[in-house]
Amino acid sequence: MGRSIFRVGLPQSNLERSQAMTSSFLLHIQPAKVHKHSIKAGYSLGLGLISLYLFFILIGTGVLLMFYYVPSTERAYNEMKDLQFVVSAGLLIRNMHRWAAHLMVLFVMLHLCRVFYTGAYKRPREFNWIIGVGLFLLTLGLSFTGYLLPWDQLAFWAITVGTNIAGYAPIIGPKVKYLLLGGNVVGQEALTRFYALHVIVLPTLALMMVAVHLWRVRKDGGLSRPDESGDVIEQIPLGQLPTNKSYGLMELARGTTPQVGKNPEDEVFSWPHLVFREILLFLLVAVVVLFLAIFWNAPLEEYANPIYPPNPAKAPWYFLGLQELVSYSAFWGGVVIPGLLVTALVLLPYLDRKRVGVGRWFARERVMANSIFTICLLAAIVFTIIGTYFRGPSWSWVEPWQQPPAVTEGH
Amino acid sequence: MNPSASNDPNGISRRGFLQLALGWAAGTLAIVASAAGAVRFLVPNVLFEPSLIFKAGKPEDFPDGSVTFLESERVFLVRQGNTYRCLSAICTHLGCTVNRAEKGYHCPCHGSVFDEQGSVKSGPAPRGLAWFQVTLSKDNRLLVDKSRTVAADQYLVLPTKV
Prior knowledge:
With 411 residues, chain A is mainly α. Chain A contains 14 helices and 2 strands. About 1% of the residues of chain A have low confidence. Chains A and B meet through helix 8 of A and strand 5 of B.
């Protein structure tokens, strides 16, 4: 019975340990053997894997929520209340979805920082970096479209502000906004569109890109390592397979594979070394999300009121840096600066081509690149902190340790 | 590609080139046309949104010197003497509803400040608030058209009989 499902038994020998990986559908996307450096927790910090696990939790809880949620301006908010007060474990599932979403944005950002600080975007991994940037944007898109669905004040005004920023883009901006909202105002059409994007379009795109991302990690020679610097074998001619390993046929799939340091003695069997670490990490992520979801509830404000914005009306935390920039100028802060940052991220591996300092944190040879990145990162953090803690009613400057001034103005 | 169509083993024959060009052109056209059709499908032809023209009420409903916020329409109706004007309450920055302040209007979202004439005094708003055309309907009601903007000094003047 067990054999018919798993094809091989619990591995007893090295051969069976390889077979455990290659003969299982779920495990075969991973190599049979993995470099010791790749499973060092201190190198990758498991950030990409944590992001993936959060994505899985989001799919699971999201599908459950879909069984109750109705994308209707009249019913959506009531469904939120039902989840909170009527549905068994409804509040917990919604909280988990909310927390996993916030954490996923955070961990995708941290993963991006890790890859930058270890120079892991360099040849041959340039294209995988671009896919990663795409996944980062998709994560933000998923988060943004999900934000509207509860149809409370927070949702309504965050999306009103967000789509108006899109409208500032030159030429196509107003058209994109119209297409996104399915009209001129945030209403039922907008909710329907955001729902379709949130539950099928963006998750499917993300899932496919995750698959390519993981596949490329393997095809590009596994995780980046310090000893591979400068040695990329451009093309392996047929009939000249590397002789230092027994499974060289796999190398035929792609020419540019870092070979140096890939000796059998540097590698360990994925089963159990990699697989058990992955399971352990998943349990850790699940425990943290559950813990957060049990003790802190996802916010739900009043029913969306298209007439009165809350004061101050704030976007989710990861967009507050952007909102702070937008408070100076919608065009420069909302379109030009983010546009330039994304362009810079995409072009980065083609601008910074020297293969030095790969596979090490904060390599001395990369002090210039790391400094520029750190300055941008710090600026983003400072703007986010200002937007989060230092802005009160009417976006006025408020020191967080002071009592916010009472709102006196009215209609 | 039919290999026999090529006479020159290193190059490409005229027939081969035409076949290739036609194939690529047809394929590209099919993809572009499908994408364009899909995008056009997503552009709504009918909007189920409230009309931009609405009746604000009788002129005498608004006392002299008053600025009245009409909630459902998100506009301010301004009366001074026997003149009537209508100011948009939608911030030109990112679309929040502005609040009436002691002198002028404040936006709660990003802190834009407008004066009594709707002009930007400070903050990120790129333009002043819009003034809408006000006319009198046949049944003696103020008729506001939110699709027509007018200059700030354009009034509806009614004969003083109220």
